[in-house]
Amino acid sequence: MFTHTLPALFTPGECREIFQLSEAEAQDSGGLVGGVQQGDIRRARISWLDDEGPAGWVMRRIMEAVAQANRETFDFDITEFGERLQIARYDDSEAGHYDWHSDIGEGRIARFRKATIVTQLSPTDAYEGGGLEINLGNRIMSAPRDQGSAVVFASFMLHRVVPVTRGTRASLTCWSHGPRFR
Question: Whole-model pTM?
Answer without folding.
Answer: 0.92
